[in-house]
Amino acid sequence: MAATPTAKMQLRVLFMAAPVLALTLLSVSAAASSIVGSAADDAATAAAATITTTTSTTIRGRRSLAASSSSQSVSSFSLDRYGARGDGKHDDTQALAKAWSAACASSQPAAVLVPGGKRYLLKLVTLAGPCKSPSVTFTVKGTLVASPNRADWSDADRRHWIVFRGVDGLTVNGGGAIDGSGETWWENSCKTNKALPCKEAPTALSFHYCTGLRVQDLSIVNSQQIHMSVEDCTDVQLTGLSITAPGTSPNTDGIHITRSQDLQVTNCKIKTGDDCLSIESGTHSLHVSQVVCGPGHGISIGSLGDDNSRAEVSGITVDTVQLTGTTNGARIKTYQGGSGYARDITFQNMVMSGVQNPIIIDQDYCDKATPCEAQASAVQVSNVVFKNIRGTTTTKDAIRLDCSKTVPCTGITLQNIDLKMQGGNDAAGSTCQNAKWTKSGTSHPSPCRRKSATA
């Protein structure tokens, strides 16, 4: 049947409109793709953050987290949204500060994102709480890099670079990097050039007065001085960290802990120019496990008691550690003239390869520009266990207990020790002074065979 004139006109209009409709749909689709693309970084942040609502309970003062069945959205705050360039040349400090302020003020769980594939140049910045947000996640996918210009730090505060202060329930993660650009600081250190005056240098990453802190899956490299410092914090877990600087870089401790309690350090690789871990006064209830250390100065409790100060350290366990090419292994170091105590300490299940001083208590420690004078008072070292420690030493004395004459070390236990000279050409030895010790199981070398010792 032939079509009417009206039907022909309707078909013609529909035919002409089809391409326009197709172009319109294509435009809408492209716009949607653009929106999705611009939100990719925010989605990555939300994925990295803990999406589920958590319920906190307290068990022996430590936070226990259990995911609830309901999900709660996370507000995401990318540095790029606040004007960051991410080219490693322009200063992005203010962009980070603005992103942090917005996240901290959020009424929902919040996540700050450092996007991947970029380098964000930063000067000194303090990211402070308390926050309105019930939890803040700081996710580093890219790299935060310190300004290489030492003039960007004033004498008023040369000790810090990135500081988190007074933030509870903070998580820092993301698999990215924090680069301290430390080379120019090392060159101008008095330990590198003794003709230069001794000045402080920044710690790359500092946490002050934080409770319920989690730091995981980060690389921290080439810090100006200490790589990470935990001060006045409670309930802390540091996991899966890689900390790296040349073995010749001065004062570049890996993790520094002081005035903090209830801490765990797990599954970390630390290669620096100073202590892999330095555990100082006010540290209580610390458990360290599965740590690889070296080069560096080993795992140290101290220094304690410097400038005639009082020190208190207790409840320290260092377990399952591998040290390679370090100047010390398991060490306790205190200055003469101090007071207080270092007690209830266990070093166990440690493997050492080419370590200069595998087991050492040094109560005559001095790291001053001028020699330290002899003093009668000292930090009391007691109830220390060295257990299941094996490997090789590069110095004759694999065990050295050098304790105070007026405040001797007491309750020192040496259990299942097997340390040999590297190369096997000579037998390892031991020296002790003013140490009251006991042996359990086997011990090679035999403990305290020279100098005055009390068994």
UniProtKB/TrEMBL annotation:
Catalytic activity entry: (1,4-alpha-D-galacturonosyl)n+m + H2O = (1,4-alpha-D-galacturonosyl)n + (1,4-alpha-D-galacturonosyl)m
Polar residues: bias regions: 432-445
Keyword Cell wall biogenesis/degradation in annotation: yes
Keywords recorded for this protein, A-Z: Cell wall, Cell wall biogenesis/degradation, Glycosidase, Hydrolase, Secreted, Signal
Any Pfam family matching the protein: Glyco_hydro_28
Primary location class: secreted
Any one GO biological process: anther dehiscence
Signal peptide, first to last residue: 1-22
Annotated spans, Disordered: 432-455
Entry's localization field: Secreted, Cell wall
Enzyme class name: hydrolase
EC number: 3.2.1.15
GO function term, MF aspect, one: polygalacturonase activity
Residue runs in coiled coils: none
Family from the record: Belongs to the glycosyl hydrolase 28 family.
Protein known as: endo-polygalacturonase
Organism: Paspalum notatum var. saurae
Top-level taxonomy: Eukaryota, Viridiplantae, Streptophyta, Embryophyta, Tracheophyta
